[in-house]
Design goal:
single chain; 9 helices; mainly alpha
């Protein structure tokens, strides 16, 4: 149990240390560690956690870390107390690198914010963050989430349509909460009619 808690801490500390771009930028790194490298969760479970983490208050990455820590320790030990400890450890491990780095960097960033070196660093980080966010979106476009044109054509095409509509709505600055509510209602009504 202690070895698993230590592994969770080190894994989430690494995720926190080497992830840039906020919650959505961190998704691809988190998926690689949680689903691919350690096989703690399946891709379907990971996708469910992403959806739940988006709808709950707080940063998506912290919500995901909390849920993953709880889920893994609960499945492993069956103890809710240890599961809560697991969720606290993963959340702390994810936040700790940012806290340390921002404490160090903020001291110098304010002093040198107009410098050429700082501007050069940010000019490289901006496209990197966009790439990480795009990668997170592509990672979630799986057959578990979308279905397939041959196997579940209605589910597949409705998922594609909802994705395109949500993209257009975001570009037109529609509230993300409104997009979630409308998408959920539309999908619920559609599936209740079809099934």
């Amino acid at each position: 149990m202690m070895i698993l808690l230590l592994k969770l801490f080190l894994t989430f500390f690494k995720i926190g240390m080497f992830s840039f771009g906020g919650g959505y930028g961190i998704l691809s790194v988190m998926q690689g560690e949680i689903v691919t490298s350690n096989a703690w969760l399946s891709m379907a479970e990971f996708t469910d956690i992403v959806a739940i983490s988006q709808m709950t208050p707080g940063p998506i990455s912290i919500n995901m870390a909390t849920y993953v820590g709880y889920s893994i320790m609960n499945h492993t030990t069956g103890s809710q107390l240890i599961a809560i400890i697991g969720s606290l450890i993963t959340s702390l491990a994810l936040m700790l690198p940012s806290l340390i780095l921002m404490t160090i960097i903020s001291r110098y960033l304010l002093k040198y914010s107009k410098g050429a070196m700082v501007n050069a660093i940010f000019s490289v980080l901006r496209p990197t963050v966009v790439g990480l966010i795009a990668s997170a979106a592509l990672l979630l476009m799986t057959s578990e989430n979308y279905g397939t044109p041959g196997g579940t054509p209605l589910r597949f095409w409705m998922s594609v349509l909802i994705t395109i509509a949500a993209f257009v709505a975001v570009r037109r600055k529609v509230s993300p909460i409104l997009i979630l509510v409308i998408s959920g209602l539309f999908t619920g009504v559609l599936y209740s009619i079809v099934e």
